[in-house]
Predict the structure.
Amino acid sequence: MLPKLFHVGAFFIPTYGLMVTLGVFLALLLGKRLAVKAGMNGDQIFDLGVSIVIAGLIGAKALLIVTDRTFLDSWAGAWYLLRSGGVFYGGILFGVAAAWYYLRKYKLPFWKTADIFGVGIPLAHAFGRLGCFAAGCCWGKECSLPWAVIFTNPDAHQITGVPLNVPLQPTQLYEALFLAALFGFVYWRYPKKRFDGQILLTYVILYAAFRFCIEFLRGDPRGTFLGILSTSQAIAAGLFALAAIAYAVRNKAFHRLHP
């Protein structure tokens, strides 16, 4: 599609990077506004978000290396690694670790803070998936559907390896649409939540279930878990179970305090 938004010689601005940056910036601004409304320090929430983003970028690339070590086989692979977004779940895991450290340092209420980010994450992620579509990464399997997409840009193939002139499932757009709808849902539910943690856990449960299913339509090379599931499916299953248990526990505690 349009992996290079602007380029002069060998230098170029990747569309993916711009979309991710835009999505993260909007999510951080939204988080700051929600924090102020909740009586919290908006600047601390903004700084926490920036720390999570930095840690997330490192984690996303780290998991990408774990799932595909060929990136370290050549300078070209290493250069692509630096330009790529990486694996989303790696970003989540490292981001959670950074959040845990920051929350303890500034003594922020965990679940209340988590809900603020639970609204912004799907917004940023939706923009990221639009960036994936522009870059050509995370492509779907070959299909004959009337809404199949055909990538023709040689730069997209060179940067991501996406097959050219082949009708593919538009998995990036499926996910972007789902995430946009999920953002609308959690944004609507946020002021109506019954207990702290409900928004973030709702996001994790719904996205993990969707990601597990969408992986069956993905056609790009990915690592496998026990030769059965993709790495992302295995992580999605684990996150779904943990979030569902946490939701049930907190919901039960809420009903016990508010019979």
Notes: The first helix runs from residue 15 to 37.
